[in-house]
Amino acid sequence: MNRIRITSKGIEKTLRKFNYLRAISEYIWNGFDARATSVDVQLQKNLMGGIDQITIADNGYGIDRDALERKFTPFYESEKQFDPGKRLRVTSAMHGKNGIGRLTFHRFASDALWSTTYEDGASYKTYTIHVRSDRMDSYEATGAVPANDVQGTGTTVTFHNIIKEFVYEELIAYLCREFGWFLELNSDKGFDLKVDGSPLDYSSLIREKEWREIVHKPTQTVFHLKYIQWNDRINHEHSKIYFIDSTLTEKHKQPTTFNNKSDSFYHSVYIQSSFFDHFDFDTEPDSEQLEFGFGANKRSEEYLFMIDEVSALIKQKRKPYLKTYSDVVIQDFAEADAFPPFLDIPEDRLKKEELESVIREMYQAAPKIFIDLNREQKKMVVHLIHMALDSNDRQQLLNVL
């Protein structure tokens, strides 16, 4: 029996941060972190249609038995380390670093059993690890034995006695938001995530997808670009640009210039080029270190050209989206009874049309003004705009806002 270094404070934080959907996702991330290209989630149903057992299998490099104690016993209590929304990452690698998801099974199951196979020299070895939800400060591990009938490495974790009622549609929707962007990032590498043997279908999450080739003519540097607009918010990832080199390896990622505009315009941009093979992503463009550096960096003409092209593309895509979404804002205000009463007469109908037109115009110019308002705030904003229009002071209102 081995002890896990965790305190009641650590357990309390974990309980607060993870629901069963995020917990399942962390075990999937653990597979991809272990360099898996395929992860398969199996849901074993009982006669009543409920879930009795969940299995998550990956083809990653497994857990070396000699390194088990070093890797498995620490459980960090830093909120930043085990909250996926607060972990700072400049690439998508090592999402589940530091065993973040290892003990979260207690949110939905009574125990977890890992069966892992790893490469040991010219052969493979396998063993199991067992943790119970009522004794999370300890684990049991068998000794490693030769895996003569195994052709590769990987880990399968099985959860028994499911105590949480799973809603299948809710799980699939969550996994789409959690992994859609990541599967697109690694689509050329053949990555897949399966649920009950079928590839995760996140196509309904994609609003628009477009490929472009951008060429910096003075140097003939080619950038292959894939743009995706999502129908829903991406879990913890937001809108990013991903930089991929000639070996299809992600070298860096950063927020787009339209990442946090509060207008539900969710998007991802994937850029692949040999230009990133030896690119300095670590040094900021205003750093004096770039004066003495070698190779491409954030001051390079090719990079600046590419970033301008990407920003122009996103701006171009966002404009018609805002115009369309302004109808949603009008409908939302109407349902909140935010509009002043208008009579069914020609004069009032014109006033209402003008008020809606100005709201649409203002939303497209500054959508953040209309986001996250409660019912009373919606009424206040609409009535203030209406009063400004009645006083023939529309331009002053726009200037102030």
Secondary-structure topology with pairs:
Layout: E1 2-3, H1 8-17, H2 20-33, E2 38-45, E3 51-58, H3 68-72, H4 79-82, E4 109-120, E5 123-132, E6 138-141, E7 145-146, E8 154-162, H5 168-185, E9 192-195, E10 198-199, E11 206-216, E12 221-230, E13 240-244, E14 250-255, E15 266-272, H6 301-335, H7 346-365, H8 375-390, H9 394-400
Parallel strand pairs: 2-9, 13-15
Antiparallel strand pairs: 1-6, 2-3, 3-8, 4-5, 4-8, 5-6, 5-7, 9-10, 11-12, 12-15, 13-14
Characterize the main sheet. 10 strands, mixed
The helix count comes to: 9
**Class of secondary structure makeup:** alpha+beta
Q: Estimate the helix proportion, in percent.
A: 25-40%
* Subunit organisation of the chains: single chain
Mean pLDDT reading? 84
Number of strands: 15
Q: What Rg, in angstroms, do the CA atoms define?
A: 26 Å
Order of helices and strands: EHHEEHHEEEEEHEEEEEEEHHHH
What is the molecular shape?
A: globular
State the end-to-end distance.
Answer: 64 Å
- Give the low-confidence spans: 76-88
Estimated share of beta-strand residues: 15-25%
Describe the model.
The protein is an alpha+beta fold and 401 residues long. The chain has nine helices and 15 strands. It has helices spanning 8-17, 20-33, 68-72, 79-82, 168-185, 301-335, 346-365, 375-390, 394-400; strands at 2-3, 38-45, 51-58, 109-120, 123-132, 138-141, 145-146, 154-162, 192-195, 198-199, 206-216, 221-230, 240-244, 250-255, 266-272. Strands 1, 2, 3, 4, 5, 6, 7, 8, 9 and 10 form a ten-stranded mixed β-sheet that branches. A five-stranded mixed β-sheet has the order 11-12-15-13-14, with helices on one face. Helix 6 (301-335) packs antiparallel against helix 7. The longest helix has 35 residues, at 301-335. The N and C termini lie far apart (64 Å). 28% of the residues are buried. The model is unreliable at 76-88 (pLDDT under 50).
